[in-house]
Sequence to fold (103 residues):
Amino acid sequence: METKLFTKNDNGFICANCGNEVKPLGYSSRNHCPKCLCSLHVDINPGDRANACKGILKPIGAEPSPKKGFIIIHKCDKCGEIRRNKAAEDDNKNLIIQLTVAK
Fold:
């Protein structure tokens, strides 16, 4: 049996980093705060919520993608894993630009 690599999981949440109330995205799975761009290290594959780490994934960089807009690069503050994630339409564009320039 084949394991699904993407599970749609578009729930709202309270950001563990900044306390912002994050609404569901509506067109894909929401996995990071649009205000501070932080996420929780809860997935092994997108949306599965199967990772036991639960650390805060903090944005450390961003890079433009011709097909996906911007990719946000996160680093877990608990285990150090690096994850890449597509930016959402309502993400903090100023912070994304700062992360792109700082890279």
Remarks:
- The radius of gyration is 13 Å.
